[in-house]
What does this fold into?
Amino acid sequence: MEDTAAVPADSSRQPNDSRIRQIDSVVIRFAGDSGDGMQLTGDRFTAETASMGNDLATLPNFPAEIRAPQGTLPGVSSFQLHFADHDVLTPGDAPDVLVAMNPAALKANLGDLPRGKTIIVNTDEFTKRNLAKVGYSASPVEDGALESWQVHPVPLTSLTVEALKEFGLSRKDSERSKNMFALGLLCWLYNRPTEGTERFLNTKFGRRPEILAANLAAFKAGWAFGETTEGFAVSYEIAPAPAPSGTYRNITGNTALAYGLVAAGHRSGLPIVLGSYPITPASDILHALSGMKKFGVTTIQAEDEISAIGAALGASYGGAIGVTTTSGPGLALKSETIGLAVSLELPLVIVDVQRGGPSTGLPTKTEQSDLLQAMYGRNGESPVPVIAPRSPADCFDAAIEAVRVATKYRTPVLLLSDGYLANGSEPWRLPAVADLPDLHVEFAQKQDEAFRPYDRDPQTLARPWAPPGVQGLEHRIGGIEKADGTGEISYDPDNHDKMVRLRQAKVDGVDVPPLEVDDPTGDAEVLVIGWGSTFGPIAAGARVARRNGIRVATAHLRHLNPFPANTGDVLRRYQRVLIPEMNLGQLALLLRAKYLVDARGYNQVRGLPFSSAEIATAITSLATEGGLELSSLEETH
Amino acid sequence: MTTELGMPTVLSGLAGVPHLGPDDAKQTRKDFTAGAEVRWCPGCGDYAILAAVQGFMPELGIKRENVVCVSGIGCSSRFPYYLDTYGLHSIHGRAPAIATGLVTARPDLNVWVVTGDGDALSIGGNHLIHALRRNVNLTILLFNNRIYGLTKGQYSPTSEPGKITKSTPVGSVDTPFNPISLALGAEATFVARTLDSDRKHLTSVLRQAVEHRGSALVEIYQNCPIFNDGAFDVLKDRDEAQARLIRLEHGEPIRFGVDGARGVVRAADGTLQVVDVASVSEEALLVHDAQNPNPATQFALSRLDEETLSHVPLGVFRKVSRPTYDDLVRAQVSGAQEANNGPATDDDLAALLAGRDTWTVAD
It folds into this structure.
């Protein structure tokens, strides 16, 4: 083993170094056992990459089990990172490099790796026993099964143990640092700086000096291994991506969403009260907000999903901004209380971080299949505005928009994130706090005449928000139908008809910006329209299709209820409309029903985002041939 | 093991609620009477409870606009419409959950939950026990008529075994809940029982409940004249009641019956037994301790109750002091703001958004 101190303090090398090759983008997938620290390794590599100014997108993919049996296929955890010298729209279709920490990781991921790409395997874990666990009779590293790929067999575990022998750790403890060795190697290979990770390790293990020293040594040893081993003759450099000037950070969707709620509370001057019950993949929002007390954020971890939204609604009744966070199964349980909030006409934000369904489904995988539940999953005519962020960083703005609509129109608002946005990350240009929307709210004021809690603002149709504590505004309201104006119980047929229509008109009238179309040539015949996290894959897929000469326009719906006023005009402008969704055609159903257009769905429910290649193929089929090939897609309706 | 949470331990349930000043007009029963026509059936026990509440609310001296009554679904849950305060008639079983959010957000409110045996113990059972264990500063009135009234007469979770109802034509096979036992099992800090027809006792118990800081559960035996009429008649007949009602007084030996001839003692096996006082020494009588933090004996008292109502302890079973959930939650928020030298500023928010790792792209 070489001297581990060989890492220069400044790890960037000279650009004219012939051992460095310039490339414009790369996709790396780290894969290993759940206990191998792949998410941490991926996070650190991402942080170093972000600090280089590359644009990037990430896709963590992990099992629902905390620790599935070691070395088995169900226990494989992976983290994919796409970074480039240009704007990155997706975490990458297929990896260029697969780091496989054991046979299970290789087997589970090899199918995604195009031939000719690079595999780094930890040969130490390719033991007879581990191979047998996943059904390999011989090591694929040795029997020629990987001939079509560039394979770098590296005894990662034993190199790590060797590098750490002076620390007097047990073998088991030494082995645990092998993810840092792998990280060091990849940092060398892609010219990532090392200072950030060193700083990170210092903070994380500052109080346990022996662990800190071991991790640092493993990280440096991995770096030095790349530098000095002939197997890795060339390393790669990816230039920074051009980006608008400003200060940037990397951020995941769940963190951005939590920060958006904090910012909305700050800009409204009202306390945020979160009622939540732990559920994957939404729990990180609860975790983040529970640490925001100095921002006046109160978090209530309730006894169940129903209580969680109940507490949020109670807080809204009291004049706070009530928020509840959940995923699909939890949204189902909250339905009745959302209906009450529709009837009470109080502000409330319901965040659904969608995951694979039905039932428990795929808790850690992404899906967009709660759109119809969000739209219609309640008894009675119970309209609520629905908003969906399009990327991890956009979760910040979407959360602020949800609070704006909820408080302005006194209505529950559904914010539909998903598992991919929640855990994925991307660079985010920090907004100036003073530039964030002013969300100031007016409560009902003391008055002399009898208070009428259901009188409406003629513009917004919103009723007064009258929290308790104001003399003269004492009033009683509930889930029973209320008389227009007075809010008293009313069973009058005409009044009910009127109130149902008023509530609908209020939501239909929410101010929503017009739908924008991206049509670079201006003569596209095909429109691809999507919502939520398919934004990146659709944009990337359209880019590929255009490169192949297809004239295609794209549009993205951020507001699902109400739709932008020009949605019908946009849809009718194109001969063919394609709607890719990670469900069996829920937006397609809504658009076809509302606008009577022959929009086609392109649907997958594999728990994974679309690849740009899949979208490009679907676009090309529809554009060039007009439907025959797409008939197979249509069948998924 | 206890943690010193820095909270004052004995505070009124009304601490923080604005009281009337010397210049404010004196409140009367009329101030708490809403205009809505009361629509309970003639003879319903709810009328007596409403009258008692309207009657004693003015005595509390708090501002009417700071009183909120939250209810679920059922006959009892119409209560808020008849009280001229703020009122929220919510959905079935969820009033304790909604009230928890309201109380946590608003320390200046006096919040009541009005519920029934179906609402609180069946569909809302989970919320009730969790509100009680958290000790949210709420006064919970549980109207127990042992029947579903608003849905027209099905058996409830407090109906006696064998009960014939529309949904149990050959008799209920369910074992009922004893609401007092349930509340004590959840370690509620205030647990009491009273009777709709005993205005004086009802008022006295409610007053103690509202002044208690924390979750106060008051079970009120309440007659449904339509679907379960006479369920508590034996407790309302003068002679019968004397033989059955055990009026609990903190610090007093537990005696009841004609001339206090009956009493409660602890048997050798640790259970409680009803005996003739003459057969034991007076010193052997159990002295009621509502303030014992260990609810075991209070629970044993609640088990004297039987479906036949042969012995019915009435009064305050338990009244102990424990920091409330909402006070503790607010203390954490205000503590964080104090540590920050005040509520977060724009700069604090900017620092949060930036995090620790940023990079700059120049023009």
Residues 219 and 349 of chain B are 47 Å apart (CA to CA). The mean pLDDT of chain B is 94.
